[in-house]
Amino acid sequence: MMIQFTTCQAINTHAVTEAIASYLSQQLEIETRFVIEPPWEECLQYVLAGKIQIGWMCGYPYVQTMAQPEPPVELLALPVFAGERYENQPVYFSDVIVRQDSPIIKFEDLRGAKWAYNEVGSQSGYHIARYKLAQLGTNGDFFSKIVASGGHLRSLQMVLAGEADSAAIDSTVMDAALRDDPDLANQIRIVEALGPSPIPPWVIHKSVPVPLRQSIRQALTQMHLNPAGQEILAVGQMVRFETAVDAHYDPIRQMLQAAQHIHL
User: Fold this and answer.
1) Region for 140 from its dihedrals, namely left if φ exceeds 0, alpha if ψ lies in -120 to 50, beta otherwise
2) CATH class for domain 91-197?
3) How far apart are CA 236 and CA 172, in angstroms?
């Protein structure tokens, strides 16, 4: 059976996802293929329909999918990222950024600012901001204007260009952007890190036979023990994968419940 992989995350996840698909092909002697051609929204639907068997999806659509009577996918494994703030756990943050010369020093200073978010299906760029507003006892009118950018890196570019005052960026995307362009640290500031949130999970469609699902899960969670696996994980600034249980995503469910009346 051909096992197809995709990622619904930012572009910085493409290379490592493709490399992991190739690694699993060699380790398990199975045929794999990395798919990224359609927009990520279509790739996600392909994963849920079983046309693509393994996907790296955001936590928000994951919890929405699990609310269905018969979810078509299950958790495969959770990536754990390098970096002290992640404390060797499958979590990440939403970095609230402003330009270096901005007078804003904390989230509360953003009242009346122009806010950019990536898209409405994102925990890190959209829903956690709703939760923060709920904690502050306010609503989307906290900001003077709200604009959808279409992606975390586009939100970053909008802030840099002065098209937006601030945005919440997936911290793993921010880490990769700073690695690729160290001078970025002189152009932006992080005024608050929202979270942590459970890391976007890797899921597998239930049409994949159970023994093969188990073999793939084992190979992923043992990657860090293999020198070749370590090199691949390092490409994505990851240290390992760990096994997962659905309860790990309860914090997202709790945030959504708390912010159910908050609109951006």
Assistant:
1) alpha
2) alpha beta
3) 9
Tell me how far apart the terminal alpha carbons of the chain are, to the nearest angstrom. Answer: 43
Distance of alpha carbon 219 from alpha carbon 24, whole angstroms: 7
Vertex 63, ends 50 and 74: CA angle to 5°? 40
pLDDT in tens, 107-157: 999 999 999 999 999 999 999 999 999 999 999 899 999 999 999 999 999
Helices (H) and strands (E) in the chain, counts: 9, 11
Q: By three-state DSSP, how is residue 73 classified?
A: strand
Per residue in 169-208, pLDDT (tens digit) is 999 999 999 999 999 999 999 999 999 999 999 999 999 9
What is the Cα 32 distance to its own chain's centre? 23
The pLDDT value recorded for residue 39 is 82
Angle, alpha carbons 150-57-158 (nearest 5°): 20
Q: Which fold has domain 3-82+200-248?
A: D-Maltodextrin-Binding Protein; domain 2 (3.40.190)
Assess contact for 113 and 144: CB atoms under 8 A: yes
pTM of the model: 0.96
